[in-house]
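step=encode ok
step=design start
structure_in=
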């Protein structure tokens, strides 16, 4: 008997590094995703086959542990470990994995793999975890098997995304709302093709700086901070430097997500685009998680007719820019941004044209 799970990659429409600060995020499922097919082995082995990479990893269900750092296998093994930790009655499986999500491009190929694995294991092992628990299992895999202290944005978006809707997620109440995306919206994701060496460590460093800012401000998480409180603490000289800038970014991002959801409800895409531009600027100057290539693409994108806004999407320090367009302008946009990048870098960047996708 075969069991099959699918989960899409995601883009972060708005809400940068807000998730682990208990904040607000607006996620977007993509039209690309990961598929995992599970078949019983009749023993206690977990056989992982990455069909696209032509790689196989075999591990024992009773001794699940991370393999070498950076391996795709850690995400699937980590998810299986999460099921076992929650008491799943597991038996040996062969997991056939395929994915159309570009890896290392800031589109959460890892979350898509985790979530597709979760869906396949859930069927194969007959568990009944709800989607939020599956998201936590994926997040735990990142923390314990990949060493990234991520929030829930990627997994929640991947699991809750439906076609033509954005995923509005309140990371404090854990409420998820699917917000219709106006039909005249279209997205293009443009990859920088760079992943700066510092990116993994820098993500955890940013998280630590946010925690430090929250501590100085006397709040549990930055979600509770207000612009007034930050001003006061700055005037008193208590909050300075990096923690001050990080706090301002998070508070600004939460406000921008709330404003974007209102604008979407009102069908005001131009306003959402403007919020995206402001978000990128805040990443560049306050959170300092942009880079030259992202700044270049975001700035050039905005000069192309039909582009309503552009920003970095995801952790930062490389990865991709997400551009919001009026539908119909995507072909010209892709052509223009490709030529622009080619002139500057001598190579044409990978692009992905997508609507809001889902399972
Ligand atoms: C990565 C993490 C997410 C989130 C974003 C930044 O994608 O995995 O949890 O923190 O960065 O918003």
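sequence_out=
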């Amino acid at each position: 008997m075969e069991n099959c799970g699918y989960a899409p990659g995601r883009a972060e429409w708005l809400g940068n590094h807000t998730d682990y600060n208990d904040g607000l995020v607006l996620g977007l499922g993509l039209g690309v995703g990961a598929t995992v097919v599970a078949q019983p082995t009749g023993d206690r082995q977990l056989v992982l086959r990455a069909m696209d990479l032509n790689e196989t990893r075999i591990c024992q269900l009773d001794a699940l542990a991370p393999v070498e750092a950076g391996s795709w296998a850690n995400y699937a093994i980590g998810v299986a470990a999460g099921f076992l930790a929650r008491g799943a009655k597991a038996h040996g499986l062969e997991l056939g994995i395929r994915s159309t999500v570009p890896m290392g491009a800031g589109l959460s190929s890892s979350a898509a793999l985790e979530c597709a694995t979760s869906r396949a294991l859930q069927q194969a092992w007959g568990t009944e975890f709800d989607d939020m628990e599956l998201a936590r299992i994926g997040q735990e895999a990142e923390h314990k098997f990949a060493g990234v202290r991520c929030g829930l944005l990627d997994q929640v978006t991947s699991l809750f995304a439906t076609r033509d809707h954005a995923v509005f997620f309140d990371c404090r109440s854990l409420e998820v709302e699917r917000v219709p995306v106006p039909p005249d919206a279209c997205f293009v994701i443009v990859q920088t093709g760079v992943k700066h060496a510092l990116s993994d460590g820098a993500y955890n460093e940013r998280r630590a700086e946010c925690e430090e800012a929250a501590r100085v401000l006397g709040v549990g998480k930055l979600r509770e901070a207000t612009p007034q409180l930050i001003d006061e603490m700055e005037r008193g000289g208590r909050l300075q430097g990096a923690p001050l800038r990080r706090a301002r970014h998070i508070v600004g991002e939460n406000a921008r997500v709330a404003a974007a959801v209102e604008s979407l409800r009102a069908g005001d895409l131009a306003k959402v685009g403007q919020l995206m531009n402001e978000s990128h600027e805040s990443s560049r100057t306050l959170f300092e998680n942009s880079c030259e290539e992202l700044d270049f693409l975001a700035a050039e994108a905005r000069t192309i007719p039909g582009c309503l806004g552009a920003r970095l999407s995801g952790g930062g320090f490389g990865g991709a820019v997400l551009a919001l367009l009026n539908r119909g302008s995507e072909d010209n946009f892709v052509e223009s941004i490709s030529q622009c990048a080619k002139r500057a870098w001598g190579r044409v960047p990978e692009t992905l044209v997508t609507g809001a996708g889902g399972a």
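step=design ok
step=annotate ok -> The chain has two domains: 3-179, 181-354.
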